Amino acid sequence: MVGCAVTTRTRCVILATGGGPRPRKNRGPTAHAVIVDDVLYVVDCGNGVARQLAAAGVPLTSLRHVFVTHHHSDHNADYGNLIWLSWASGLRTRVDTWGPPPLAKMTRLFFEMNAYDIATRIADEGRVPLVPLVHVHELTEAGPVMRDERVTVTAALVDHPPVVPAFAFRFDGPDRSIVFSGDTTRSASLVRLAQGAEVLVHETLWVPAVDRLVARVPNAATLKEHLIASHTAVEDVGRVAAAAGVRTLVLSHLVPADDPSITDEMWIGAARAHFAGDVLVAHDGMEV
Ligand SMILES: [Zn+2]
Ligand SMILES: [Zn+2]
Question: In this structure, are residues 139 and 165 in contact, taking their beta carbons and an 8 Å threshold?
Answer without folding.
Answer: yes
